User: Fold Oxygen sensor histidine kinase NreB from Paenibacillus sabinae T27.
Amino acid sequence: MNIKLSAEDRMITFFRYFSLFLTSLMFLITRTGPSLFYKIPIIMILALLAPAFTIAYRSLRHKPHAVMASVSIEMSLILLLAICTGGYNSPFKLYSLNPILIAAGSLSFYFCWSLLVGYFAIFFGFSYFFYKSAESTLVSVLLENGNLFLALALTVTFMQLLSRFRRQREEANARTNEMLEHIKSLYHIVETSSEHDFMNIGQVITEYAVKLTKLNKALFWFASYPGGPSPVSRQTGWLPEEEVNLFGELKVHEPEWRRQKEPIFKSFPGSGDLLLMPVRMSTRFVGVIGVKLEAHEGLENRRWYIQQLMFLAELSAITLERHELSVTENRLIVTNEQNRIADEMHDSVSQSLFGIVYAAHSLKQSCRKMTPSQLEEQIELIHDSATKAAKELRITIYSLSSKKSGGPTWLGMVRSHLQSLSRLNDVEIDFKVKGDDFSLPYTYHKALFRIISEATGNAIRHGAARKIEVELTLKPRWVGLAVRDDGVGFDTDLLWTRSEENTGGLGMKNMQHLTRTLGGDFQLSSSENSGTQILISIPVGVIELKNA
Assistant:
């Protein structure tokens, strides 16, 4: 098994072999101790044990008890070697730094210091018993060899501080990476949200507030808005009866929230201590995002929570403002398009129809006085005018169709999105289409685009896929979608369990919800290291019947 070496691993390995070389050299050139005949086999044994213990520590790094046992064995061997090769004067007495460095860097504080104190006590006791001279006293021996303990103690202290800083950095990096993943998922959701989702954006924000802060309870309370309907206030973690009391308290203090621009710490009866952050658009006050604080939370954690709520408040304000601007823009587009259609119909089709009506009225008044040839000529004129009107009407209808006028079609936009996704992430995406989307209602266009975008995005971000197949089948009464990837896969049972506990991602839940909203069937199959497959079947027309 190949194990990637860190800078710390390389440093400790270098120190082990360098210290072994120096201590072995000193052991060979000193005249005390055993003869050269015994020294060479000892050094050879040490040269074999050094790589064996190095490999063992790397292989067992995730098994603390096994590392503890290996460190204890090596320390015992070094202790025995130092006592047998001269005691106080043994060059191997400092070779014990090798297992001590391992203990200080990867094992508990108490074990490391127990190992150090035990080594020094046993080494000093046996050396004093076997190697003391007649004039030596216990105090003098301690003073002479105290520098050994001091060197070991300073080394342990430095290594433990270094290890602590390393762990803090790794935790910070892990937290940052996790937060970035959540932010990307949240941005992807709000970027592809529909009208229905914007009215329930509070639920999405509260679930991500729980994910980002690692707390159990979060809320998004929306103030009333006289200009139109506001999104629904939502919470995560509170019971339904607690929710009523919570939102009631927030409503009572609405004037206070409208004045505030900074984070607020507030305590409500029955709800506990809350951290609240007002949400403001450029034009108006929106509401409040909050989390319930735990009693043991320190100042550093509270600063972290404030940062997350400030981000969520800013993102919510931008999302809602963008939505309102989009609604206004759509209304203006519809109005302008209606005016354009009315102008075109008035200038072309209506004029022709007026001429036909006028000619028919004249013919009705004078047909009895006309000869057959005159009557036929007049009818032919009306026929030509009706044909011209029909042609103008057909041209107008075709000009309104993006498919007929050469404008961007829905399938073209989907293909363009997948091509951009492919280029940006260096992933092969094969998009196959069977059928025509021309008669597919707009609601299905919106939902299918979101599902395709969510499925391919998940395959790239979470599945690390290198190839994705998207197959879309469009029939008059049925739509089928299949998305397959060659990614790492996952345990689907674990996914739905986490989803129910609000600890998993929202992507699958959103796709499942969209499919079921349209009356369709959602199937997910995946396993670890075997990729993922999503199959969706949606009947066309079900949602229209429900809304009829």
In short: Strands lie at 218-222, 234-236, 264-268, 272-280, 285-292, 428-435, 467-475, 478-485, 521-526, 532-539. The first helix runs from residue 7 to 29.
